[in-house]
Each structure stands twice: as structure tokens, then as C-alpha cells.
Amino acid sequence: MSAEAFTFGRMYHPWGRFRDLAHFTLRWAHLPEGVLGVTDFDGKTVTLAHGLDQAERRSTIAHEVEHIDRGWSPCTTREECQIERAAAQKLIGIRELGEALAWARDLEEAAEELWVDVPLLRVRLQHLHPAERAYLRRRLADEGTDEQDTTSETRNQ
User: Fold this and answer.
1) Largest CA distance in the chain
2) Cα separation of 11 and 32, whole Å?
3) How far apart are the C-alpha atoms of 137 and 146, rounded to whole Å?
4) In this predicted model, what pLDDT tens digit does every residue of 122-147 receive, in sequence order?
């Protein structure tokens, strides 16, 4: 099934998508510092790190589902960036992003409202389409809020 099959209203539900991947199982383990999740294609498992909060779990399972949907490929920085960008676009709709940024005091509060972790929100903001950027400028101007410049930050855990 496509990602669209796992949207409720406008919100993408990565856990529903993962559930459809019956040939993969979920495990929890202590992973190296900075590693939140791992997809093992040979073992057909996704392993998530112990101790993740709700937003981190949701962001990480979306990332790992994207790996599965794309199929195995060498783990490169470019591939990881593309996967993170795709996960961010699925989890954070532009209208929801505009609403969260309009009232949130900072990125942490906006991420909490969007049910994602801050690094994923930063990725979404860094890779806005020009039309999305224009929409956000208009939306935030309506609230008297300036668009935050987050282009210099990347996802690091």
C-alpha cells in the first residue's frame, strides 16, 4: 500500500504503514549513541533504540519505513538525507507546519505540536519547495511572525 493509505485526515501514520509490512518485525535494543533506528533487510527487522520519546519513535519509524519502501541500497550520506527528507515531508504537511509555526514560541514547541522530533522539523524547514516557502511567509505574516531561518542546522542526534 502507498503512504496515502495511511493518512488520517491529512496526518501520515507511519505505524500503520509499518504494520502493513508484515514481513518485517520490530525490535527494541540499546543502539550506539546517536543511532535511533536500524533496518536489517537480511533479518527483516527494524530495531529502534530504547528510551526514545513519542516524537522520536514516530520520526524514526517513518524514516525506517522509508528505507523499506525504497528497498535496500548502500547506506550513504546522500541516501540518508533523501530518506530523512521524504519522511519529513510525509509527517509534516505544509498547512500543519504553518499553523504550528504561527503560534509556537520555538522549534521545540512546534515539533511537539507536529508529533515529530526537532531534527526532523529542521529537515522539513531546510527543504521547503519555493511555493511552500511562499505559503509560510504569507501564513506567518498573517500572524505578525517572521519565518525562522533554520537553514544552517542539520539532523544530528
Assistant:
1) 52
2) 31
3) 7
4) 999 999 999 999 999 999 997 665 54
Answering whether pTM is above 0.85, one says: no
Best CA proximity match to 59, nearest among 5, 118, 107, 129: 118
pLDDT digits (tens, 9 = 90+) for 11-30: 789 999 999 998 999 999 99
Length of the chain: 157
Crossing angle of helices 118-126 and 54-70, in 10° steps, is 50
- Residue 111 makes CB contacts below 8 A (sequence gap 6+) with 55, 117, 118, 120, 121
Beta strands in 22-134 (DSSP E): 25-29, 37-40, 45-49
Cβ 27 vs Cβ 47: under 8 Å: yes
